[in-house]
Write a structure and sequence with these properties.
It is globular and about 40 Å long. It has a four-stranded antiparallel sheet. It has one domain: Alpha-Beta Plaits (2-Layer Sandwich), CATH 3.30.70. By secondary structure, it is α+β, with helices and mostly antiparallel strands. Helices cover 28% and strands 25% of the residues. The chain starts with a strand and ends in an 8-residue tail after the last strand.
Length: 123
């Protein structure tokens, strides 16, 4: 079964195009390393909760939008191999170099994790 890496970040509203450019440039690495799909979603209907919510999770300010992203891998082994390759061999790749492709958001507030699907309904 597939494996999913999920991400939630706060991106300044003014950096929307910079974020799209950053993702279009950098996300190609994941595809080259075996990802089936990379999806970046700009917050559109993200309500404020009574106890917790996406905004609080990433400490988003009024001038930021919550972005929800995921990478779909064919399996965990492919994902683990890709992540190992990225940390070992990708240092010279401009797509992963923060000086050549700077993150247009505060990466310290990014929430991420790997997830094993337990229900996968499709049409």
């Amino acid at each position: 079964m597939s494996y999913i890496d999920g991400f939630v970040i706060a991106v300044p509203k003014a950096n929307k195009q910079a974020f799209i450019d950053h993702a279009n440039f950098g996300d190609t690495v994941f595809i080259e390393l075996g990802a089936l799909r990379v999806v970046e979603c700009w917050g559109d209907d993200v309500p404020i909760g009574k106890v917790t919510d996406f905004q609080r999770a990433v400490q988003a300010t009024d001038d930021e939008i919550v972005v929800f992203s995921w990478i779909e891998w064919p399996d965990k082994a492919t994902r683990d191999a890709a992540m190992a390759k990225m940390t070992q061999d990708m240092g010279g790749d401009d797509r992963m170099n923060p000086e050549k492709n700077p993150m247009p958001f505060d990466g310290v507030r990014m929430i991420y994790g790997g997830f094993a699907p337990i229900v996968d309904l499709r049409r």
